[in-house]
UniProtKB/TrEMBL annotation, chain A:
Enzyme Commission code: 1.4.4.2
Subunit structure: The glycine cleavage system is composed of four proteins: P, T, L and H. In this organism, the P 'protein' is a heterodimer of two subunits.
Gene Ontology MF term list: glycine dehydrogenase (decarboxylating) activity
Organism: Novosphingobium album (ex Hu et al. 2023)
One family name in Pfam for this protein: GDC-P
PANTHER family the record matches: GLYCINE CLEAVAGE SYSTEM P-PROTEIN (PTHR42806), GLYCINE DEHYDROGENASE (DECARBOXYLATING) (PTHR42806:SF1)
Sequence ranges assigned to domain Glycine cleavage system P-protein N-terminal in this UniProt record: 1-443
Gene: gcvPA
Family: Belongs to the GcvP family. N-terminal subunit subfamily.
Keyword Protease: no
InterPro entries, per the entry: GcvPA (IPR023010), GDC-P_N (IPR049315), PyrdxlP-dep_Trfase (IPR015424), PyrdxlP-dep_Trfase_major (IPR015421), PyrdxlP-dep_Trfase_small (IPR015422)
Record keyword Oxidoreductase present: yes
Name of the protein this chain belongs to: Probable glycine dehydrogenase (decarboxylating) subunit 1
Function: The glycine cleavage system catalyzes the degradation of glycine. The P protein binds the alpha-amino group of glycine through its pyridoxal phosphate cofactor; CO(2) is released and the remaining methylamine moiety is then transferred to the lipoamide cofactor of the H protein.
UniProt keyword terms in alphabetical order: Oxidoreductase
TrEMBL record, chain B:
Domain Glycine dehydrogenase C-terminal: start-end pairs: 386-485
Record region (Disordered): 1-24
EC category name: oxidoreductase
Protein role: The glycine cleavage system catalyzes the degradation of glycine. The P protein binds the alpha-amino group of glycine through its pyridoxal phosphate cofactor; CO(2) is released and the remaining methylamine moiety is then transferred to the lipoamide cofactor of the H protein.
Alphabetical list of InterPro entries matching this protein: Aminotrans_V_dom, GDC-P_C, GDC_P, PyrdxlP-dep_Trfase, PyrdxlP-dep_Trfase_major, PyrdxlP-dep_Trfase_small
Coiled-coil positions: none
Keywords for the protein's UniProt record, in alphabetical order: Oxidoreductase, Pyridoxal phosphate
Native source organism of the sequence: Novosphingobium album
Domain of life: Bacteria
Reactions mediated catalytically: N(6)-[(R)-lipoyl]-L-lysyl-[glycine-cleavage complex H protein] + glycine + H(+) = N(6)-[(R)-S(8)-aminomethyldihydrolipoyl]-L-lysyl-[glycine-cleavage complex H protein] + CO2
Protein name: glycine dehydrogenase (aminomethyl-transferring)
Ranges of residues in domain Aminotransferase class V: 186-305
EC number: 1.4.4.2
Length: 456, 518
């Protein structure tokens, strides 16, 4: 067993030091009746590296990977090119196999990265500060609602119909147990986002409005107008960014008046990974710092006056405050935060802006080509790298049939919103810098064949 | 006293220079002890390590009013500069790859590199969570195979795979209990938590809307069963018990506790953070547990990554299984695999309590954990528990003559050896031992936890430490205990040889500086 260093002779010697006759003597506190006397039956025994690799490789081969097909999915998870050095650096053992930096003298590497990460996120979001990451965008969204309730001492959150439905589900699930009131606005196939409905739903009991930017259909809400309406009654604006690359091109939510900005950081450095691990981003105004959830890294000095970094304000956290903590979170997404930070450092501000411009241009090319197909209509004229198309058929079936033809052709609104009526012809398609013109042409040809019946 | 030279990066040694190298270098570096500036001091927004083609067209007219005014103020570095920056930073970290990392309750074991390689296969790493099911059969099968192992190893009925980490798994388990109580039409609002519990337990219970009542520990470090039974009643939703517990001991009365809780109409939540001690030796399902999270980043060796990501699947009893959150993977009678989510929850899964995460959970951790489990097999996992417990008892018996071990007389420990700082010289405490270990080249153990022991030191060597490695650690720990007993003042200023001396945490908290200011 290649991962277990003790030899039988060493085990015997150690038992001698302990004064135990056998290893079973060390398990005496386990009631006899519950003890297993040998390996659990019907499970395989240990296997060589080669054998395990063969098994896992076979399973992997049953999946159609995004890079091996024309690929147009988004809906909260985006495929971007990750520079080779990112994955190399995060696999350095000093990063990969370190723990949460509770002993700062020997964890300055992780801590400085977190400080840099917090600054990058704050600058990207246009917020004063940011934390050291959360589990993912959806859980960060719920934590933002809880925080807004602590800040405003009100308990009603309004969710825009443009919020990713999974995020909405997470929020409603949690709120059912905490008793927070959630007003979820409907999602409609309209060209404009539901800014007016959001503003109309704000009253003096509202703690926050939650608005995705760009929204789940690819539309771009007017955050400044919503922020103004929210602030008029003392409510906060929580902006949700599921595609941070967009912020290379469109204005940062914090600069438009958002009080809390949360997001999914998967786009940079992390990859698709079938949904996880991902990276929750969380930024807000500095005056809310003591109400923030999650870990925070702060700058300080050591006993010799040298600059250094520590985890700070831990009196908000569960290991100190126990049942009075601002969040129960212990583990965050440290290694994903590192990957995000490295990717963003490699891009730089100008690089990110250029990447965003390319993403938008690719989406324009995709829209232009697909809307030439009879039976395809564009819902929203304003978009970043993702748009909603309205097809002449149920989009769920179209997506499945496209997959049979080797094209990963977007996400159907029927799958995202299974209980909503009137959305089933909606298809969400995204393009990024990884999209080629050949991919677009193949997609268009196959889609046209399905909608119009032209033989492929 | 500026630590930064504005003209470039050059750390000063501070005003005292106490304990630092006698000689000052012009660079501020000392051989392989390399300092590193922040990216905000090194980079600029117009520098980049990525070549990007110019966009083929200008932004659409409709986007004009949304456009950002200027590129974000994010510093960029070219690839050689970036690789150097992060490599130099990495060397300021201690890690399992460098030596023992005996943090009690954290299970810092070796992270096999095959796991990393498998998680990076494009068929797993480059797959979108909302691809049509026909294109992700292998990914769903990984989830199903891992689920099957976890169910079998724990003797439970089912498992919710989506929780993102241990605390998230705790929340999932408690929400299943809430949902089950709701289905029974009962309002029970109290959760009993032992005072030795990890802070996440009471925090999670409060997060799930329960009131927390504390259960005392007995003098031998176990849950006070009589005190627990006295608190049971129609308002008690359940108990949260860590087993093996945070004192490193097995709770021998677990089954009796479970029976009493069930008889009173409550449920048993087990914190599975310490499952590494019993995997393959005991099944929690045989002890009356209704829900238990499993930290894949502990027992099943997915890397801690400097603070995550983790993964916290929750195994569930028959009673709680129907309430598990969406999405999940099921296997039909014909062996086919199905993904159940909102779209098709249908009648069979109507009681699912909702959704905890946007997608399927920590897939990248599932592939690593399954790889680890297949490598060990049923026999190897059992050996893991045995070696973890053997190593901890070896440390316990090798140090108990120099450091008080409050519960050692009552018998063996499980996978953690617990010491206290009683008996050190006046003014010396656990912190001095911990910081002294850093100078000795080790990561300190968990300190001041569990709270029920004064100056607690919780040592979890794990099964992946060799005997030679343990002997070196033991020699250092013994030496430090003796120095602290003798009143060796140099311990108060330890560490002397780390990249930084003790850091001023008070200043950091009083005037928080959380982002770089130009």
């Amino acid at each position: 067993m290649r991962y277990l260093p003790l030899s039988p002779a060493e085990r015997a010697e150690m038992l001698g030091v302990i004064g135990a006759a056998s290893v079973d003597d060390l398990f005496v506190d386990v009631p006899e009746a519950a003890r297993l006397n040998g390996p659990i039956a019907d499970l395989p025994m240990h296997a060589s590296e080669m054998a395990v690799e063969r098994h896992m490789t076979r399973l992997a081969a049953k999946n159609l990977s995004a890079g091996s097909a024309p690929f147009f999915l988004g809906a909260g998870a985006y495929r971007h090119h990750v520079p080779a050095s990112v994955d190399h650096l995060i696999q350095r053992g000093e990063f990969l196999t370190a723990y949460t930096p509770y002993q700062p003298e020997i964890a300055q590497g992780t801590l400085q990265v977190l400080f840099e990460f917090q600054t990058q996120v704050a600058r990207l979001f246009g917020t004063d500060i940011a934390n050291a990451s959360m589990y993912d965008g959806s859980t960060a969204c719920w934590e933002a609602i809880l925080m807004a309730a602590r800040v405003t001492r009100k308990g009603k959150a309004v969710l825009s119909g443009g919020l990713h439905p999974h995020y909405g589900e997470v929020v409603r699930t949690m709120a059912r147990f905490t008793g927070d009131e959630i007003v979820s606005l409907d999602t409609d196939l309209t060209a404009e986002p539901d800014d007016a409905a959001v503003i109309g739903a704000i009253d003096d009991k509202t703690s926050c409005v939650v608005v995705q930017y760009p929204d789940v259909l690819g539309r771009i809400p007017d955050l400044a107008a919503i922020a103004e309406a929210a602030h008029a009654t003392g409510a906060l604006l929580v902006a949700v960014v599921t595609e941070p690359v967009a912020l290379g091109l469109i204005e940062a939510p914090g600069a438009l008046g958002a009080d809390i900005v949360v997001g999914e950081g998967q786009s940079l450095g992390v990859g698709l990974q079938f949904g996880g691990p991902y990276l929750g981003l969380f930024g807000c105004r500095e005056k809310f710092v003591r109400q923030m959830p999650g870990r925070l890294c702060g700058q300080t000095v050591d006993a010799e006056g040298k600059r250094g970094f520590v985890l700070t304000l831990s009196t908000r956290e569960q290991h100190i405050r126990r049942e009075k903590a601002t969040s129960n979170i212990c583990t965050n997404s440290g290694l994903c935060a590192l990957a995000f930070s490295i990717h963003l450092t490699l891009l730089g501000g100008k690089g990110l802006a250029q990447l965003a411009a390319v993403n938008h241009a690719k989406a324009q090319a995709l829209v232009e080509r697909l809307t030439r197909i009879p039976g395809v209509e564009l819902l929203n004229q304003v978009y970043f790298n993702e748009v909603t198309l309205v097809l002449s058929r149920d989009a769920r079936e179209v997506v499945r049939e496209l997959a049979d033809r080797g094209v990963l052709g977007g996400v159907s609104l029927g799958r995202l919103f299974p209980v909503a009526d009137g959305l089933h012809k909606g298809l969400l398609v995204a393009a990024t810098e990884t999209t080629t013109s050949e991919d677009i042409e193949t997609f268009a040809t196959e889609l046209e064949a399905l909608l119009v019946g032209v033989p492929a | 006293m500026s630590a930064v030279n504005a003209a470039g990066w050059k750390p000063t040694m501070g005003e005292t220079g106490e304990g630092g190298p006698a000689m000052q270098t012009a660079s501020g570096d000392y051989g392989l002890m390399l300092e590193e500036a922040l990216i905000f001091e090194l980079g600029s927004a117009d520098k980049s390590g990525v070549d990007i083609d110019a966009p083929e067209r200008a932004p659409a007219a409709g986007l004009a009013k949304f456009l950002r005014k200027g590129a974000p103020a994010l510093p960029g570095l070219t690839e050689p500069e970036a690789v150097r920056h992060y490599t130099r930073l990495s060397r300021q970290n201690y890690a399992i790859d460098l030596g023992p990392f005996p943090l009690g309750s954290c299970t810092m074991k070796h992270n096999p590199r095959l796991n990393e390689k498998m998680a990076r296969l494009p068929g797993f790493a480059d797959v979108h969570p909302m691809q049509p099911q026909s294109t992700v059969e292998g990914a769903l099968e990984v989830i199903e195979q891992l689920a099957d192992w976890l169910i079998t190893l724990t003797g439970m009925a089912s498992v919710a795979m989506s929780p993102k980490a241990g605390a998230h798994g705790e929340l999932c388990g408690l929400l299943c209990i809430r949902a089950a109580l709701d289905a029974r039409g009962e309002q029970r609002d109290v959760v009993l938590v032992p005072e030795s519990a990890h802070g996440t337990n009471p925090a999670t219970a409060a997060f799930a809307g329960f009131k927390v009542e504390s259960i005392p520990a007995t003098p031998d470090g176990r849950v006070d069963v009589e005190a627990l039974k006295a608190k049971l009643g129609p308002n008690v939703a359940g108990v949260m018990i860590t087993n093996p517990n945070t004192c490193g001991l097995f709770e021998p009365e677990m089954k009796a506790i479970g029976d009493a809780v069930h008889a009173a109409g409550g449920y048993v939540y087990c914190d599975g953070a310490n499952f590494n001690a019993i995997v393959g030796k005991v099944r929690p399902g045989d002890l009356g547990v209704d829900a238990m999270h499993i930290n894949l980043h502990k027992t099943f060796s997915t890397p801690h990554g400097g603070g995550g990501p983790g993964a916290g699947p929750v195994v569930l009893s028959e009673a709680l299984a129907p309430f598990a959150p969406l999405p999940f993977v099921t296997r039909g009678a014909d062996g086919s695999i199905h993904l159940v989510e909102e779209e098709n929850r249908g009648e069979g899964h109507a009681q699912a309590f909702g959704r905890m995460v946007a997608f399927h959970g920590q897939m990248g951790m599932f592939t690593r954990a399954l790889t680890y489990i297949l490598s060990h097999g049923a026999d190897g996992l059992r050996q893991v528990a045995e070696d973890a417990v053997l190593n901890a008892n070896y440390v316990l018996r090798s140090c108990e003559d120099v450091l008080p071990a409050p519960f050692a007389k009552s018998g063996p420990c499980m996978h953690e050896a617990l010491f206290s700082d009683a008996g050190l010289a006046e003014g010396f405490s656990t912190l001095d031992i911990a910081k002294g270990l850093i100078d000795e080249g080790f990561h300190p153990m968990t300190v001041y936890f569990p709270l029920v022991v004064k100056g607690a030191m919780l040592v979890e060597p794990t099964e992946t430490e060799s005997k030679a490695g343990l002997d070196r650690f033991i020699a250092s720990l013994r030496s430090l205990a003796e120095r602290a007993k003798a009143g060796d003042q140099s311990l108060h200023s330890a560490p002397h040889f780390a990249p930084r001396r003790r850091l001023d945490e008070t200043q950091a908290a009083r005037k928080p500086v959380l982002v770089w200011q130009d």
